[in-house]
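Input (structure):
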């Protein structure tokens, strides 16, 4: 009942292929249609919001803490296998190796996120990626590595060297009991559109993150029990402001320990209810920051919700809960609690279109010097459409608001993106994206409002 398998027989794909084979017959027109589709979608940006699910310039991945709700009853446009174009990889014993290289040229009209002194620039990026996965009948081992090496033509201080390595292993103890282990390390550059970063930075803010976690899942008939335990550490580098001031960000360094327990009861192959308890502990490295105690805290959340996956219609998860965060320095930082919401769904109006919807309200720990926590509220809509068998166009958008109860202030963010993904052969593909973002803080210490228009064109080579 809780299977997440996406295995499709040839007969299952007949309806999809009957629609797309006629399009595949005219593949010589694909390049022109790809360019035309990108330009048409770009014109829709003014001033509507849009977003892309893949190769996103501005939007982070959608995040909810809900458990898997995909039971294989639906296949999204970007998930669907395309045998004539899917990468085959290289067999290495019982492992499959999938290497990939993206080379891109990009543009930003506000490279420093400062409307009072706007500077535009172009950049090139070199993005190698490799995935190594086992091909075993039981158990699984996966290793991945990626980098984003970005170089700007004029404003070289904005150059970036981001990277990510991770490994995961699944142990099938019995048919019903599985244990998964995950480890990850990455060097990440923050975006002021998605984090509590003051906008007027000369150098991009970056941090080193490490993650260790385990997930245990037990299926028993109509019931499923899931438990997770993880540890995440953050180490931030110093940043430079527009006035030349260099700030040490060690006050943001921390280690977070978290655990969750979920019970899910299935009522049918398409519908289940779940209840989840979450707890976390934040330990900061410095005892004092800017004359105030650090933000060591405990957080708790209880969620009750439903997962559904209705064939040919929709799939998703909807949960409503209560969040609570208490700080050790309770005289300085306010204890905050309230209603939280997590809702994410995919709607399938046709076999060629997938509409994704995210609605979220979360209580999060804040990386600001004189605030403890904030409410992160956001709504996101994305649309993936298969214009051709090997050409997908994506548009969408997001509106978010971060509220700081202790400051009576907030930050509103509007983001938009449109893009297309054209797979010419198994090994060669093209991507084009245009994105717009607007950041509007209201309050002291949150930086100045700014907006940015970005564009990127990429060539993708894979095996």
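Output (sequence):
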């Amino acid at each position: 009942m809780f299977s997440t398998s996406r295995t499709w027989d040839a007969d299952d794909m007949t309806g999809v292929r009957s629609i797309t084979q006629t399009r595949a017959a005219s593949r010589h027109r694909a390049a022109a249609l790809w360019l035309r589709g990108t330009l048409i979608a770009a014109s829709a940006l003014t001033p509507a919001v849009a977003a892309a699910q893949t190769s996103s310039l501005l939007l982070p991945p959608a995040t909810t803490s809900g458990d898997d709700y995909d039971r294989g009853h639906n296949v999204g446009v970007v998930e669907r296998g395309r045998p004539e174009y899917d990468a085959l990889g290289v067999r290495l014993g019982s492992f499959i190796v999938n290497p990939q290289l993206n080379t891109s040229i990009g543009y930003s009209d506000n490279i420093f996120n400062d409307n009072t002194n706007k500077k535009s620039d172009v950049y090139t990026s070199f993005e190698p990626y490799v995935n190594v996965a086992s091909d075993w009948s039981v158990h699984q081992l996966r290793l991945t590595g990626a980098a984003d090496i970005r170089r700007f033509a004029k404003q070289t201080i904005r150059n970036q060297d981001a990277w990510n390595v991770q490994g995961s292993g699944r142990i099938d103890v019995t048919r019903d009991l599985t244990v998964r282990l995950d480890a990850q390390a990455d060097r990440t550059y923050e975006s002021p559109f998605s984090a509590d970063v003051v906008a007027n930075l000369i150098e991009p803010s970056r941090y080193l993150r490490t993650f260790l976690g385990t997930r245990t899942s037990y299926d028993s008939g109509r019931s499923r029990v899931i438990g997770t335990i993880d540890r995440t550490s953050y180490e931030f580098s110093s940043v430079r402001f527009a006035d030349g001031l260099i700030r040490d960000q060690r006050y943001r360094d921390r280690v977070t320990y978290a655990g969750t327990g979920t019970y899910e009861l299935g009522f049918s192959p398409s519908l289940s209810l779940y209840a989840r308890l979450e707890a976390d502990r934040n330990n900061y490295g410095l005892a004092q920051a800017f004359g105030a105690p650090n933000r060591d805290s405990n957080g708790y959340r209880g969620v009750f919700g439903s997962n559904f996956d209705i064939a040919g219609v929709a799939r998703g998860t909807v949960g409503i809960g209560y969040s609570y965060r208490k700080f050790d320095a309770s005289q300085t930082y306010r204890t905050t609690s309230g209603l939280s919401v997590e809702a994410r769904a995919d709607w399938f109006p046709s076999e060629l279109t997938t509409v994704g919807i995210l609605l979220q309200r979360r209580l999060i720990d804040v990386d600001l010097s004189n605030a403890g926590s904030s409410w992160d509220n956001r709504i996101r809509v994305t649309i993936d459409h298969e214009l051709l068998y090997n050409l997908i166009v994506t548009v969408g958008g997001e509106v978010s608001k971060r509220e700081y109860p202790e400051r009576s202030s907030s930050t509103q963010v509007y983001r938009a993106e449109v893009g297309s993904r054209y797979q010419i052969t198994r090994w060669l593909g093209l991507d084009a994206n245009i994105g717009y973002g607007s950041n509007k803080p209201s309050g002291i210490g949150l930086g100045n409002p700014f907006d940015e228009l970005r564009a990127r064109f990429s060539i993708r080579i894979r095996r």
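Notes: The two ends are 35 Å apart (CA to CA). The helical segments are 14-24, 30-43.
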